[in-house]
């Protein structure tokens, strides 16, 4: 897939069919983008599982935080990645190792690694990179 641009219908379809999201890199700090996006997604009706090893067992926006993707208590449709691009390859490996891999791995703004994307796509997992669902949802589904 060409990750320089995405078809709006494809992105809208991903966002409409996604119900559960593991938000990797969730922060309890309301000034952090991951916290604001998590709040936006919760308000839109998504079930969000925050993942952050430094916050594991605590709560962010009323949701229990998990240390790693494998600790999330149910399969998720999407992994939303708030980590630096250099970590995306490892995130893909972690997601693909799950008993039920996600349908989509979504790299937030500036999170792009084409090699990691090729690996995910070869395993049947869609990749979206350098995009934010909190921007795409109002733009495509308003």
Key attributes of the depicted protein:
34% helix, 5-stranded parallel sheet, Rossmann fold, two-stranded antiparallel sheet, 142 residues, 7 strands
Overview of the molecule:
- The model has no long low-confidence stretch (mean pLDDT 97).
- By secondary structure, the protein is an alpha/beta fold.
- It has a five-stranded parallel β-sheet, with helices on both faces. It has a two-stranded antiparallel ribbon with strand order 3-4.
- The chain is built from five helices and seven strands; from the N terminus they run αβαββββαβαβα.
- The chain has one domain: Rossmann fold, CATH 3.40.50.
- Helix 1 packs across helix 5 and helix 3 packs parallel to helix 4.
Structural class: alpha/beta
Count of DSSP helices?
A: 5
**CATH fold field value:** Rossmann fold
Main sheet strand line-up: 2-1-5-6-7
Number of strands: 7
* Major beta sheet summary: 5 strands, parallel
CATH homologous superfamily identity:
NAD(P)-binding Rossmann-like Domain
Total number of domains? 1
N-to-C series of helices and strands: HEHEEEEHEHEH
Low-confidence stretches: none
User: What would you call the shape?
Assistant: globular
Q: Which CATH architecture would you pick? A: 3-Layer(aba) Sandwich
Kindly estimate the percentage of residues that lie in beta strands according to DSSP: 15-25%
Intertermini distance: 26 Å
Helix content: 25-40%
The overall pLDDT, averaged over residues, is 97
Give the C-level CATH assignment.
Alpha Beta
Q: Give me the Rg, rounded.
A: 14 Å
């Amino acid at each position: 897939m060409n990750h320089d641009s995405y078809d709006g219908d494809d992105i809208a379809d991903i966002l409409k069919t996604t119900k559960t999201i593991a938000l990797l890199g969730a922060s309890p700090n309301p000034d952090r983008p991951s916290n604001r996006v998590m709040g936006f997604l919760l308000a839109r009706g998504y079930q969000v599982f925050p993942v952050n090893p430094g916050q594991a067992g605590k709560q962010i926006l009323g949701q229990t935080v998990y240390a790693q993707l494998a600790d999330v208590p149910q399969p998720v449709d999407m992994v939303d990645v708030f980590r630096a691009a250099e970590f995306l390859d490892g995130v893909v490996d972690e997601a693909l190792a799950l008993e039920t891999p996600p349908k989509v791995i979504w790299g937030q703004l500036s999170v792009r690694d084409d090699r990691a994307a090729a690996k995910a796509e070869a395993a049947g997992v869609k990749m979206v990179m350098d995009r934010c669902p909190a921007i795409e949802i109002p733009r495509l589904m308003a």
